[in-house]
Amino acid sequence: MAFRPAGGANPAFPFADMSREASLARLEKLAHLLDSAFLIPGTNRRVGIDAVLGLVPIVGDFAGMLMSSYIVYEAKRLGVPRWLLARMALNVAFDGMVGVVPLAGDLFDAAFKANRRNVRLLRRHLERTGGLRPNEIEGTAFRIDG
């Protein structure tokens, strides 16, 4: 009998763990890579591969939309309602359509960060419906000095 890590994931196949927590962690990493992986020197602004690809006319924006669509696909696989899928798809489409405009679209793409928005929407939905443990505990904390 071979040793298997918790959750049944095979370490040789990191994408084999299809749990909601693992899927969301992968999507958060992807969103970070696409929207805010690189710090612009001399500023406090971050951009990702999506904004860099957007500098290549039409092809770069299309490639960015394809990568962003993967997050929507995973949300569908995780069972989110159609209204949320539509909202996420609109974020991707809006980002892609405005991104086609030379220069102004690239600046917008760097600021809008559709992928991080979509992952945040997905996380919030999964936490509210009980499909995921909350990342933060809501409420008020009191210090008790004894």
Automatic annotation (TrEMBL):
It holds the Pfam family DUF4112. It comes from the Bacteria. The chain crosses the membrane at residues 51-73, 85-108. Keywords: Membrane, Transmembrane, Transmembrane helix. This is DUF4112 domain-containing protein. It comes from Methylobacterium planeticum.
